[in-house]
Amino acid sequence: MSAEPLPTPRGPSPAPRRRQWSFRSEAFRGLLFQLFAVVLVGCGIWYLAHNTLANMAARGIQSGFDFLAQPAGFDIGETVIPYDALHPYWRAFLVGVMNTLRVALVGIVLATILGTLVGIGRFSRNAIVRGLCYAYVEFFRNIPVLIQLLMWYLFFTDWLPPIFEAFNVGGLFLLSKAGFSFPVPVWSFGVALALVGGLIGLLAAWLYRRWALRKFEATGRVRSLFWVPLAIVAAGMVLGWLVGGAPTAWSIPRAEGFSMEGGASATPEFLGVLLGLVFYTAGFIAEVVRAGIASVAGGQVEAAGSLGLTRGMAMRLVILPQALRVIIPPLTSQYLNLTKNSSLAVAIGYPDVVSIANTSLNQTGRAVEAISIIMAVYLVISLSTSAFMNWYNKRAAIKER
Amino acid sequence: MSAVFQPIAPRPPPVRTTGAVAWLRANLFGDWMSGVATLAMVAAAFYVLPGAIEWLFTHAVWRPDADACQKARGEGACWGVIVEKWRFIMLGRYPFEQQWRPEVATVLLMGLLVASCIRAFWKWWLGLLWLVVIPAFFWLMGGGFGLPRVPTDLWGGLPLTVMLATLSIAFAFPLSILVALGRRSSLPAIRTLCIVYVELVRGVPLISVLFMASFLFPLFLPVGKSPDVLLRVLVGITLFAAAYLAETVRGGLQAIPSGQVEAARSLGLTYWQTQRKIVLPQALAIVVPGIMNSFIAIFKDTSLVTIVSLYELTGALGLALNSDANWRPFKIEGYFFIALVYFAFCFAMSRYSLWIEKRVGVSRTR
Questions:
Q1: Inter-chain contact A346–B207, Cβ cutoff 8 Å?
Q2: What's CA B294's distance to the chain center, in Å?
């Protein structure tokens, strides 16, 4: 660049902008409307806040979040982190948030699998499969999720056999009024190493996949993108397990009187919420998947067929990748719906964040604080999920040149 | 050499591609996998169906006889519980001798809804009909003017469900149009307010809004004034539904090409004239199915008000059975019954939504 910038040519100077402070000017009216709206909302909020403070003073309600540091004084049925009644309220809320996330995450994974299967089933060549998938969607979508939760819970607590007559598969998996129990490996150094190995395997598999994809782009040679990465992960786990001394101890559930000993259990409350949410949301996901598949042009299927791809391959390699772009945005809102619907757990006593907040509200009388905690938790979950899905959606979107 | 004419054998007729057998072959035994699936499912049906039919019908007890139900427990359903308690489930705690009132009120309200769904009735007097029927509903339910008063905490069952769904959508609709227009407005302050409202409400579950209606609304009002819990819950559901409806309406607004707005402005129409005469008629016609889906969603969501102690269909069932030790064990049959009621309503509405979607499509391709 030369030292002196070129002088920019001067056109006719624009007419000086006249500000019309009259009601006829659109800009002025716009300003006025906005001012009016902001003042109105501000006054409304001030009025509500003023009333709330006056009411609290009149009823002698204390306010503030200081209660979070006091001991909660109630027990929680199932916890992910250690908790007892002497712990403070904030820890109880943390347990509740963890329980919400636990049921929502497991629910999202299961509902996605079931919903995708049912959605694809709507295109089956077998009339019975088609009919069953259609019936599934119509049946589960049109019954309120709360009733489904209550029915599952009733099924678990009322209809299943008592603990000493549990349904039992090979003595390993037990289903009874106490919930569903399954064996878990006894925690030891070897198990930890197997997990670490699995994580390393996951990383290696991801690197391999990237390398294989780049090779495919360069040479056109197809390498396995599913079985080899899977084998890498499995090898990592086995290796870690062998290095840790190959522990083989499993904790197996068995009924001891009126309680279940050993193994791990999912409580009837957890299962009620989980199954209710999964079956309900899967109906909606199936419709989302069906609409996505239907949006792929019919010529694509025919072209895939004429290239010699089987129906399964055409679905996996041609249709689903294109349908995914249509599917992701509505799928995100279904995930969010599932997470928000997990708040219904309060109806059957699963200790999620809403039910913890409800208990705290009844104990301390701090309605404003408890309800704002619920809202804040769900807002954070909702906004971060949609941020993540927007990012993923951008990745999956058509790369336009 | 003279060749003797030898007719070749006639070809077999083509394999039939229509008719029952061909349909079965194509749809049930298309390839070996399909055939295996068919056989497996038929086998599963033979395994499951006899037991299900026994439990549901043949071994079921249809008389309201608690002892017979107890005896058949595990083998047959106890539909007697419905026969015994259906009034309580459908109408809640409404005083027995006055129960014709909720019945008439529900029929009126549902008649109004059905009328609003029929194209031939989309005239100016339909609005008038709403203005007559809704007050009539409240008069019948609440009393006054010659009828004995019934406080709202005795209302329950189906009338409450239908009323909550109808009124919350009816009130949410105008609000949602304003919010949707505001979200597309060029005025930054108004746009921000609308975005914050919609995203805040859509980010939280309905149950937290209902808790707010139940616990916080009394605090929000001047000291000593607390409106009826039914009114508070109605306001809560309306505000909730409006945010979702606003997004539906916004979808319709976005589908209108901007040339329409520019043409209207160049004809000298003001903003509100443009919206009222050009944009909204087209946009709302597109979103009728979306509004219908919101209505179905709200209809199902009204079941949550049972958590804040309003006894609509779901709550009334609990109320009917929890207090009666004889019938409490047969709650699952009660759930089947109200699930059927909800299903009937929602399925009918979703069929209507599909039909109207096709109608809207016709007008667009024309």
A1: yes
A2: 8
Chain B: give the shortest CA distance to residue A342, in Å.
Answer: 9
- Sort residue A127 into left (φ over 0), alpha (ψ -120 to 50) or beta: alpha
* Closest CB from A51, A139, A378 relative to B208: A378
Tell if the CB–CB gap between B208 and A30 is shorter than 8 Å.
no
Instruction: Say which CATH class B155-365 falls into.
Output: mainly alpha
Between A and B, how many residue pairs show a Cβ–Cβ distance under 8 A?
A: 153
Report ipTM (2 d.p.). 0.88
User: Which residues lie below 8 Å from residue A135, measured CB to CB, with a gap of 6+?
Assistant: none
A289 vs A113: CA distance, rounded Å? 11
What is the rounded average pLDDT of the residues B70-94? 85
Any long-range contacts for B271-280 (C-beta under 8 Å, 24+ apart)? B275/B181, B279/B253, B280/B177
Q: Which residues of A touch B216 (CB under 8 A)?
A: 52, 367-368, 371
**Chain mean position to CA A382:** 9
Q: Where are the domains of chain B?
A: 155-365
Question: For residue B57, is pLDDT > 70?
Answer: yes
Residue A201 burial (10 A CB sphere; 0-12, 13-18, 19+): buried
| Residue B268, CA distances (Å) to A29, A74, A130, B274, B345 in order | 17, 67, 55, 9, 46
Residue that is written with structure tokens 């069929």 in the block: B351
pLDDT on residue B26: 80
Question: Could you tell me the residue ranges of all domains in chain A?
Answer: 89-159+264-396, 187-246
Chain centroid to Cα A110, Å, comes to: 10
Residue B328 CB coordination number (10 Å): 13
State whether CATH 3.20.20.110 applies to domain A89-159+264-396.
Answer: no
How far does the CA of residue A34 sit from the closest CA of chain B (Å)? 6
